[in-house]
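step: validate -> pass
step: tokenize input -> pass
step: predict -> running
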Amino acid sequence: MQMNNSHDRLFSIKEFHRAMGGAILDQSVVFTRISHNNVNIFNDVTEDMFMTRSLENVLYNIFILKGEISATVNYRKSVIPKHHIFSFIPLSTITEFECSPYIEAYILICSREFLLTAELNKSPISISQLINREHTPVTKLEQSDIRTLNECYTRIENYINCTGHLLRREIVRNSIFNLLMEFANIFFRNINQGDTSLPAAAKSSIKETYIKKFIELLVRYGEKEHNPSFYADKLCISVQYLSLILKEISGKTANNWIARYIVTRAKVMLRKPENSVQQVAETLNFSDQSSFGKFFKKHTGVSPKRYKEEHMAFM
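step: predict -> pass
step: emit ->
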């Protein structure tokens, strides 16, 4: 029995909320907090959604209070410490993402439609710039910024928990708009000041264009096509050159990328109670369940059956 593919879908705010909890507004905004209590679930859920979903429909903001995040965004690896904002704009390419065990952070995810109702374009800062501009995703905060953002997040949390307030929904929405304006102020202020602590966004090179196309192909065909030669042929380059540029820019070969994608898809499928290990093996185009089991254990350290038993309760 074959399962329906989901790798070409957009990022789902509803699914993220179902997995992580927190508050959701009109299916277009989710607000939650990450700590050591739920960081493992967050890492798994985030890895799946970043690797298998398009982010073209959302703005994803993380305000780090404690700990750090290791991530590769637009082929550049960064370690982001506390008191930084980590923002993924639409069309960002996130290929690695992991929080430290004792992370504390606020997560705010807004749909593109919600952003366009924020009316930031009525100020000197255009929302279209915030959505479409390619930029480094990390913003260092000044002490005054940290205080302001803490106040904004605390206010949102307080109103979310104020269930007896008759206008709670409207106040939460307006508080999120205020938070977005503070984000925009910080971001564009740093641009205007020529923030030298952050590297300038480089123009997309030919090599990076190949990598982006490779990732698009991997997301489209990765469940069935496990051989690097398939992707090299699609790109009209040699397998050697494909692995060379992937290794040079991302630090991983084509085989590494393909294996990671397959493992990520396998984890997603195994967490769903209705999917058996045999079904997952068939969907991922393994010759039999045994070969899938060996592959999965090689890359994760546990068998598919054990992983399913330990993780499907979270989805």
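step: describe -> The chain has two domains: 13-192, 206-314.
step: cleanup -> pass
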